[in-house]
Amino acid sequence: MPDSIPDIVTDLDTPDRTSPDFDADAEFAASLTVEQRQALSSQLDEIYHQVPATCCAGSGECCVLTDDEMREGYATMFPLYLAEYVRIAEYVRHEEPAERARDLLGHTQERPGQCPFLGADRGCTIYPVRPLICRTYAVLDKETIDAAAKLHADEMPEEWVRGFVRREGAMHCPRVTVMQPDKLVQHIHNLISYTYERTMARLSRDVFEQLPEARRKAVRKQIRRRGWPTRWTWGGFNALVQARASWIEQHLKTYWKRAQLNDLD
Asked: Can you give the pLDDT at residue 64?
């Protein structure tokens, strides 16, 4: 990671959502049928149901990056999968006041210092549809991580186990209590075996194929890759999905080149 990651949002990088020639909400909503959105929600809920429920102090500290964390390359609500983005965007449109929804859907910072969904009361404003990364945060304490690594050392690839220890060890919080310990065994297996990630990536590829062809072609022309990232950030996906067509043509290439978290796949 670089010593510092610049804020990639400038006046040029902020989509103009007032232009009458592109109604992002209408185009996006029309790209998925009601049945497709319902099916996607059900599939996401099946995945989320496998994550043990937790209770925390509600301080919101995990939703705000310190100066050191910014320098070290951390990000809030990351990675966010495209399938999750679709559901959250739908929730924002229907559950948030119109002005707040416009602000959230027009947010294009790839890596803000604070999660855009952190409320004034330090609570999560999209809690019912929060993404996998938020649900799995701090579920495992250090002792559980170490024990799981030893247990699976002989039955899982060494690289998988090391990755599990590295990822989960960075998400420890002493203020989190696990409320469903009976789910821990399956949850740990899903984490080590990348079951969550593979399922989310598949759902996200399916969603990509359902987005408007004109939008996919316009984006592909600028970023020079056939598909979109299956996982990115809220601001990054907003730039791909919500920005009007002229902004995509004029500014997406620069936005993409300056991004730091857009090429994980």
From this structure: 94
Six-digit token string for 15: 């989509």
Sole residue written with tokens 């993409």: 256
3-state class (DSSP) for residue 113: coil
Domain coordinates in residue numbering, the chain: 24-258
Write the pLDDT tens digit of every residue in 111-122. 999 999 999 999
pTM of the model: 0.88
227 close to 205: Cβ distance less than 8 angstroms: yes
CA distance 254 to 201: 26
What are the pLDDT digits (tens) for 137-188?
999 999 999 999 999 999 999 999 999 999 999 998 889 999 999 999 999 9
Could you tell me if residue 243 is left (phi over 0), alpha (psi between -120 and 50 degrees) or otherwise beta?
Answer: beta
Q: How far is CA 255 from CA 106, 194, 225, 238, 258, in A?
A: 14, 30, 15, 12, 5
* Length in residues, the chain: 265
What is the C-alpha separation between 197 and 265, in angstroms, rounded? 11
**133 contacts 264 by C-beta, under 8 angstroms:** no
Pairing of strands 80-81, 177-178: unpaired
